[in-house]
Amino acid sequence: MPVYNSKCEPFTFDSLVDQFRSVIEEFPDKRTGNNTSYTIEDAALGAFSIFFTQSPSFLAFQGTMQKAKGKSNAQTLFTMNQIPSDNHIRDLMDMVYSYHVFPMFSYIFDGLNTLGHLEEFRSINNNLLIALDGTQYFSSQNICCENCTQKKHRNGTVTYSHTVITPVIVAPGNDKVIALQPEFIKPQDGHKKQDCENAAAKRWFVEYGPQYKDLGVTILGDDLYCHQPICESILTEGFNFILVCKPDSHKTLYEWTAEFENMGEIQILIIKRWTGKCYEIDTYRFVNQVPLRDSEDALYVNWCELITTLEDGTVVYKNVFVTNHEIKKENVKEIVEAGRARWKVENENNNVLKTKGYHLEHNFGHGKKNLASLLSTLNILAFLFHTVLGMMDEKYQLIRDNLPARKTFFDDIRALTRYICFDSWDEMLTFMIRGLEIELIDTS
Ligand SMILES: [Zn+2]
Question: Cα 161–163–166 angle (5° rounding)?
């Protein structure tokens, strides 16, 4: 596994691409016969470049540029030797398991940790919050591969689909999310039963507990994760949890909280807040040590609820969580804020991947084996590259701050890389800064 250990230099686009190239060099390359005109590096970097530029036609444009000018951004920016066709990319990438890309996630995480960037994500009890959520990125009645999840309907038709769990580091009040290694829901070797989100989440805890637990980690998840086997798996791997806990799916637990209520054992904290327009009243209620289910060996968890009302009593927000962190008056607000940061995995990550240009749902092929999951992994990695550059590349930050929307930024990248061959990523950013007539303040 490549470990970030160099001279504590921030990541740059070039250093990330170089590292990615060395990860690709470890990919299995199983071509035989004459099919060796394109290298696996070119195929992987080619697919990645499409996601990174959010331009489905990026390679076609670079092919045209190559013919006209004898060079292209595929070479100068993404270090490709030749520009492979979509078909070559599909063929070569279908053989590669997504876990071959995972060392890149470890490398970036390690670098962010070494460079101190994870500290701005610290939350309750100085923990990092990792939010997990499953998202379906492919569904079809007729296209399928050996890793599709199959759902047979009564009328005899079958729906094929792919779902991935996308763990991300989130923090309240921080609009950035850091993508970690995804876990795919797919038929597992040696298991007749279909895979499911809970089983996939457990695999992730087992796989990455050793890597992340010593940093202090709290897992965030929705009600689907709030069950004893998952909670036990989280604790066994050395993590903590804050999970949404709905009454409908936790009858026993809510009978106990009702009983505690009758006995006056529920603690209450009320905070009145001025929103800038009106007062809102946050009422926190909590109790520690409640059984999660109705069994002798039930796990005891700590329960808290937040109800936000207007002064006339109208409820504007309500949510409930259980956690293994001890809840006190001093930390209940922080625990609820951490629990609420979970929505960022949907809004700031999965929604961005699906609707903000990354095309998680319609990447350019399905393949027979690994292509669909490999391409979505590259897509998540492209998003992570942008997140990291947004944290470390001053020119990148300046441009993003001065362009009104993400869409404008990518529209510009698409147009610029179509018409101009830049010698480097840095040269392109410098060109954009000059064009926007903005200045980088020299702080040295
Ligand atoms: Zn499939």
Answer: 165
Dig out the tokens for 97 from the structure: 């398991």
> What is the Cα gyration radius of the chain?
24
Please state, as a whole number, how many other Cβ atoms lie within 10 Å of the Cβ of residue 138: 23
- State the distance from the centre of ligand 1 to the C-alpha of 367, rounded, in angstroms: 7
Ligand 1 centroid to Cα of residue 278, in Å, is 51
What are the pLDDT digits (tens) for 384-424?
Answer: 999 999 999 999 999 999 987 888 999 999 999 999 999 99
What stretch of H or E contains 379?
helix 371-392
pLDDT value of position 27: 85
If we measure between CA atoms, which residue out of 406, 400, 372, 389 comes closest to residue 108?
389
d(CA 200, ligand 1 centre) in Å: 17
**Whole-Å CA distances, 94 to 185, 373, 381:** 17, 9, 17
Query: How many whole angstroms from its chain centre is CA 214?
Result: 21
CA distances from 40 to 21, 27, 425 (A): 10, 8, 23
Give residue 156 CA to ligand 1 midpoint distance, Å: 19
Ligand 1 centre distance from Cα of residue 164 (Å)? 12
Tokens representing 65?
């540029």
Distance 161 CA to ligand 1 centre (A): 6
